[in-house]
Design a protein that fits this description.
Structural class: mainly beta
Largest sheet: 7 strands, mixed
Helix content: under 10%
Number of helices: 0
Strand content: over 45%
Distance between the termini: 40 Å
Length: 113
């Protein structure tokens, strides 16, 4: 079992920035990669960014060149989100993949126009 705890969400104005963090505990030695998904109201959960234990990153087209994922992908992952837009408003979930996906409880990000 892996437990994930996110922090760093909040309310910001457009063009502002936030930094999300996620800490993993439990059986973290088997984690292959960690990352972030977002779910906007009325929409499906979708991938934002992931990072593998080897440091390989992957970004959604909507955030590529704007957001930065970092961390060791063993027990921590971060998401730096500058230049936020109202359309970035969503609940952001941390994910850790160990044979199956483990999810955090989510952290709300609200960007006002």
């Amino acid at each position: 079992q892996v437990q994930l705890v996110e922090a760093g969400g909040g309310l910001v104005e457009a063009c502002g920035s936030l930094r999300l963090s996620c800490a993993a505990s439990g059986s973290t030695s088997g984690i292959d990669y960690m990352g972030w998904y977002s779910q906007a109201p009325g929409k499906q959960r979708e991938q934002v960014a992931t990072i593998s234990r080897r440091g390989i990153t992957n970004y959604a087209d909507s955030v590529k060149g704007r957001f930065t994922i970092s961390g060791n992908a063993k027990n921590s992952v971060y998401l730096q989100m500058p230049s936020l837009k109202p359309e970035d408003t969503a609940i952001y979930y941390c994910i850790a993949w160990v044979i199956k996906a483990y999810w955090g409880q989510g952290t709300q990000v609200t960007v006002s126009s």
